[in-house]
Amino acid sequence: MASVSAAAAAASTDSATVSSDACAKIIDGKLVAKQIREEIAVEIAKMKDGIGVVPGLAVILVGSRKDSQTYVRNKKKSCEAVGIKSYEVNLPEDSSEDEVLKHIATFNSDPSVHGILVQLPLPHHMNDENILNAVSIEKDVDGFHPLNIGRLAMQGRDPFFVPCTPKGCMELLHRYGVEIKGKRAVVIGRSNIVGMPAALLLQKANATVSIVHSNTKKPEEITRQADIVIAAVGVANLVRGSWIKPGAAIIDVGINPVDDPESPRGYRLVGDVCYEEASKIAGLITPVPGGVGPMTIAMLLSNTLESAKRIHKFK
Amino acid sequence: MASVSAAAAAASTDSATVSSDACAKIIDGKLVAKQIREEIAVEIAKMKDGIGVVPGLAVILVGSRKDSQTYVRNKKKSCEAVGIKSYEVNLPEDSSEDEVLKHIATFNSDPSVHGILVQLPLPHHMNDENILNAVSIEKDVDGFHPLNIGRLAMQGRDPFFVPCTPKGCMELLHRYGVEIKGKRAVVIGRSNIVGMPAALLLQKANATVSIVHSNTKKPEEITRQADIVIAAVGVANLVRGSWIKPGAAIIDVGINPVDDPESPRGYRLVGDVCYEEASKIAGLITPVPGGVGPMTIAMLLSNTLESAKRIHKFK
Questions:
Q1: Does A169 share its domain with A210?
Q2: Helix, strand, coil in percent for chain A, rounding step 5
Q3: What is the ipTM of this complex?
Q4: How far off is chain B from A190, nearest CA to CA, in Å?
Q5: How far apart are CA B59 and CA A1, in angstroms?
Q6: Across the interface, do B129 and A157 touch by the CB < 8 Å criterion?
Q7: In this predicted model, what pLDDT tens digit does every residue of A80-131 receive, in sequence order?
Q8: Does residue B217 belong to the interface with chain A, where contact is any CB pair within 8 Å?
Q9: CATH no. for residue B74?
Q10: How many domains does chain B have?
Q11: Are B170 and B257 within one domain?
């Protein structure tokens, strides 16, 4: 996708308003995500005009977790806004694995569905691995299938889909013109859904990548060598200003609630990076919220469009 | 597998004979590989006694490259020595992809075959990816299938097979008692068959891993931070003594011919690591030849045994 000078311009204006002595440019994920959604809407309109097809995304939700319901509702709304048709299955908490698998099979063979998403976490009595592996590799818009991860890791191979959150991190780096090739990158955290695929993506883009995790000794030393840091570990304010190389690009995936009696809700959300400190040292930084967060759904829409284009050979 | 004090003891004796001022303990891959082959032979004898089954390894060779023929002959000999039954198909250089695929399909459904290996490189008119992907994931003893690589990369998943050469590197570290958890590791090279899976294995063993490659600036700086170095880049003597942290464990996968008028063949084999320099600084080091080399076939035998045990549920 193209780089976006508007985003960068808006960001540099914003940065002055957030903290008077901050020197880092703010990476405005909300703005970038909005631009991407607009680009997707244009592409979908063209596709509809050209071949009479719109992308379809199926979401399977099991149980009635409030947070999952909110996510699914947001996904549905975002789909509608860009012209993706959404399909939804809501199953009770005590459904059997077989019932979920049956719905996956139906969506796998439905030609109007181009992406299938099983909302996590699943109830404890279900085997995540069995269920996620049942999603057709061509419709695995989450990119969590081990075959996709393997292709992501390998040179000369490409995954069908790149997992949404790490894809969003890369997109932010690209749109803000951050050079990756030959740069030192540190990924903090090695989860299957963010840290590990983010490291593979940076590696594929020819960065020299190190992964920092709970067993890493002196994580600050290695992080301080990095031109690019992606923090995805889920520990509030873990990465302090002293961990940051001056001028580095910081992508903060963490969204951690911390007590805040001054907030009406009694808490506020902070990242894995101590923003107050890091923003004085970094060259670019994502805020929390408003950084990586809005990118995840935008990338899900992008993966769904990509899938429909591939299946219908539409360029 | 168990650690081997005999190997370590033998190695420390050897180290004195190789270079008078070398301080590194030599990792004797030849000796370790021999011990592993003996352990495998014992296990196979037990299996044969217990359930009347021996592991079977099928090798498909296309064309008449001298080096490939030598490899295949060595594999066959090694199989026979431990009690693995070997199956071989030799196809002419101008065979079609379909012929190769037909043989793979036959071996996939043959219950006496537990491992299938397609000797690389294949002739240029064939698509490696198509052919390698046709090997049943349960019999992919090379561990090159992207599904295996994906499972290797993911937490909470395990591959059916670990690629032989990187598995051999890890086995050498284990058998020489090198602690991996919490250590800094640098892998030089990121090939699909050695560097990348070696990095994933070190990462799974809780090292803090960095991958150095052709785009890495100042590779010596990051390498010098490593307690463990795996060099697999194919450049003779790339890693100099000054790149090595004192006391580090060095696993040299490279086997590079360099001109040597004093050798009867006119050349000799050297690794990616300048042995003369590195052995004075490292704590442990593999020689070339006689380090990682002999481990690859031993690990292939190990993978074939493992596969037969899994398929026949033999513990």
A1: yes
A2: 45, 15, 40
A3: 0.91
A4: 8
A5: 44
A6: yes
A7: 999 999 999 999 999 999 999 999 999 999 999 999 999 999 999 999 989 9
A8: yes
A9: 3.40.50.10860
A10: 2
A11: yes
